[in-house]
Amino acid sequence: MRLLIIGAGFAGMYAALSAARLRDIEGVSPDRFQIALVAPVPTLTVRPRLYEPRPETLTAPLLDVLDAVDVDYVQGHAERVDTTANEVEIMTRDGRRRTLAYDRLVLATGSRLFRPDIPGLAAHGFSVDTVDDAIALDRHLHGLGARPATRARNTVVVAGGGFTGIEVATEMPARLRAILGATADIRVIIVERSDAIGHDLGPGPRPIIEEALDKTGVEARLTTGVTALDAAGVMLSNGERIEAETVFWAAGMRAAPLTAQIPAERDNFGRLVVGRDLRVPGVSNVFATGDAAKAACDDAGTIALMSCQHATRMGAFAGNNAAADLLGLPTMTYHQKAYVTCLDLGSAGALFTRGWDRKVAFVGAEAKKMKQDINTIWIYPPKAERAAALASADPARVTDL
């Protein structure tokens, strides 16, 4: 028997650990029941931290923890899924194609930044979608110090006033002053198509976000979008041009494109619509999880968000259920009653909310400490010790903040 997991993000990592946990509980040997994880590199990208400086340090090794629980790592990039033949074709690092058969498949391929066909975006827009993207941004920012001190050099435009856009924008003044000097006249502008920054976060947190923008000196252009970029600035839909040598794109996410190869329903984010056990309806041998899945996380039909908070718990359920299905055991109903947000607000602190109505629980330094603990402790892989690693992926215990 082989359970194949595609993806080494939060969902894929916990799917592998959870499947190995159930295999261990049932006393089935790894020789008889193989669990394999496919990813280009055996590392977890700590994606929620990529807005920070030194992004090259924001990965965590997975090989030791996978070895500790007898999960095989297969290096490669999954390019094709054949759900009729139960096969996945991967491209290895040396350019060879390899076909892997599976009895059950967990698709944990994550999401990608949505980049529309806006003139100049591909050539001149920065992001923190991947480690490489974040490194490119970091190098660009440090390179600004060698350029003439102009208004454009000191100006950053952030396209998108959602979670990532807010964190990048409020962090940017301090990052730039550390590079350009404490007295540098820094200008950061968020361009947002809706009528409020952090629109999806609701009205409760909004005054705190607006106060933080004011404290950090971040400007906003609301009900406006970016229509074109070049090396010297951006054009906005209201006709305004902003001279800026740094333009950051943070306007939406989509599921990774491999989901399109599964013959099943998808939502407008490209996520596979799954049942409560995270199985893809009509494709009985395939489970989807994390940002690749549109899943209800309670009986009221609340949909899990594209976040590591949900991916971690969803991964544990998906891995357990795929393994249970192979072993002839009942699957578990995915549920995630609790929901929190912890939004970094740069030098203004942070914002911590609880519940889907986002009731504010902590602000300022207290919330900042919570954010730092989440970013530096909670979301990292477990230690490469078998019992602890397996216990960390118990679906009944995986963090439900």
Can you walk me through this structure?
The chain folds into two domains: 2-113 and 253-336, FAD/NAD(P)-binding domain (3-Layer(bba) Sandwich); 121-249, FAD/NAD(P)-binding domain (3-Layer(bba) Sandwich). The protein has 401 residues and is an alpha/beta fold. The chain has helices spanning 10-25, 63-68, 121-124, 131-143, 163-180, 206-216, 308-327, 364-378, 386-392, and strands spanning 2-6, 34-39, 43-45, 59-61, 72-75, 77-82, 87-91, 97-101, 104-107, 111-113, 125-126, 155-159, 187-191, 218-221, 226-230, 233-236, 241-243, 246-249, 253-255, 272-273, 286-288, 293-294, 340-344, 350-354, 359-363. The mean pLDDT is 95. A hairpin with a 5-residue loop joins strand 23 and strand 24. The chain has nine helices and 25 strands.
